[in-house]
Design brief:
The complex is a heterodimer of chains A (71) and B (333). With 71 residues, chain A is mainly alpha-helical. Helices cover 51% and strands 0% of the residues of chain A.
């Protein structure tokens, strides 16, 4: 499940991430992290997990684990 | 009955391309901007060009194109969130500068839903006999609210004005019924906080960096992209289906859907969620960006110009955003 999640997360990125994605990776440290990537993340979670990620959650979450925990 | 007689629009001179943006924000990638937002360029008003100037240019362009007799206009409605002053209402200034008769004129303050609301007001005035030939103008210069260092908003928004003549007599299309609504619990998600009588007292003007690296102060336009995205993603598909049920129009009988042109990424998502076939869904933002209340009239103007719509076609128009506020209507061509 975690492995799939990491793969799904990586699928929203257009480029190779600038570090290896682990559950404790901080998504904001990604070079590619911006408002457009956030929208891709929302769509991916909606389509793959049927989960709604709110703007407030994006603000306070830090790691991929934080996102994974709401699935 | 009320009809849209004609529509035209005006864009300011300064083009801001994706290349221009990536020069200032090297981490921003030209292809990514085009692919995701669907926007290649937007136009920005000069320092000394204001929404009222653009409104006048759009109206004059329309009068020139249609040869519509200005003296027949008996009401002016102006939609803007970039008024010249808090008071007087900018519509009075526009009435004078356009040399219109001393007709009724007022502003109303709405953004992305503004065009739909304007059509509903105009239809109401015409149906009740208050007016026969209404000039309805939308004009916005969000660029003046956006911080130079706010990459996201500078990418999305463009300035523009539109002018529409709405008449009692037959025209381009008949204006149908409406569904209008609002939910102010979302008001803080798209806002210029330090503005207006209350806001300018409440907020400070220090610049902050948000969670996406955009820099802005409370004096600047703030948009919570993810929240707006979530709101529209759940709300708009329901709005379309409940509206069609209310007006008793079959989903398949709609020939074209013209949504507020927010950005391509959001529009694609909404299209899929609403299950609208690609060929019926209008995307007209590549050369303008999100021009707030002018996106729908610009798109209507373009599909008419391109010969996409002709007599007998049904077009569903829907606007949604800042407020939150929304509206939908159906136009019979």
């Amino acid at each position: 499940m975690k492995k799939d999640f990491l793969k799904n997360f990586e699928s929203i990125l257009d480029e190779e991430p600038n570090f290896k994605l682990e559950m404790n990776s901080k998504f904001r440290d990604l070079d590619e992290w911006d408002s457009l990537t956030a929208l891709s993340l929302i769509v991916m979670l909606d389509e793959k997990y049927n989960v709604k990620l709110s703007g407030d959650q994006i603000k306070v979450f830090e790691t991929l684990e934080d996102i994974f925990n709401i699935l | 009955m009320a009809f849209i007689h004609s529509i035209d629009f005006y864009l300011p001179n300064n083009e801001l391309s994706n290349q221009d943006l990536t020069r200032q924000f090297p981490e921003w990638n030209v292809e990514k901007i085009s692919a995701k937002t669907g926007i290649k360029k937007r136009f920005i008003a000069d320092e000394h060009e204001f929404a009222s100037d653009m409104a006048i240019k759009a109206a004059n362009k329309l009068f020139e194109k249609t040869k519509f007799d200005k003296s027949k206009i008996d009401f002016l409605i102006y939609c803007t969130q970039s008024p010249d002053y808090l008071l007087p209402t900018t519509a009075c200034i526009i009435q004078d500068r356009l040399n219109l008769n001393k007709i009724g004129a007022f502003d109303f303050n709405l953004g992305c839903s503004g065009y739909i609301y304007g059509l509903s007001i105009a239809k109401g005035f015409i149906s009740s006999g208050i007016a026969n030939n209404i000039l309805f103008i939308t004009s916005e210069t969000y660029s003046k609210y956006i911080n130079e260092k706010d990459k996201s908003n500078r990418t999305i928004f463009g300035d523009a004005a539109s002018a529409t003549i709405i008449t009692k007599e037959k025209g381009l299309c008949k204006i149908g019924n409406f569904e209008l609504g609002s939910d102010g619990s979302g008001s803080e998600n798209l806002i210029v906080k330090s503005s207006g009588v209350k806001g300018s007292k409440l907020y400070n003007e220090l610049e902050k960096t948000d969670e996406f690296g955009n820099i802005h102060s409370d004096k600047d336009l703030y948009m919570n992209g993810p929240e707006i995205f979530n709101f529209t993603g759940t709300f708009v598909p329901n709005l379309i289906h409940s509206f069609l049920l209310k007006v008793n129009v079959e989903f398949d009988d709609v020939d074209f859907f013209v949504f507020h042109q927010a950005n391509k990424f959001m529009l694609d998502y909404l299209r899929k969620k609403t299950k609208i076939p690609k060929e019926k869904f209008i995307l007209e933002l590549e050369d303008y960006g999100n021009t707030v209340s002018s996106t729908i009239p610009i798109a209507l103007c373009k599909i008419v110009e391109k010969g996409k719509v002709n007599s007998g076609k049904k077009v569903l128009v829907a606007g949604f955003g800042v407020g939150f506020s929304w509206g939908a209507s159906i136009l019979d061509f």
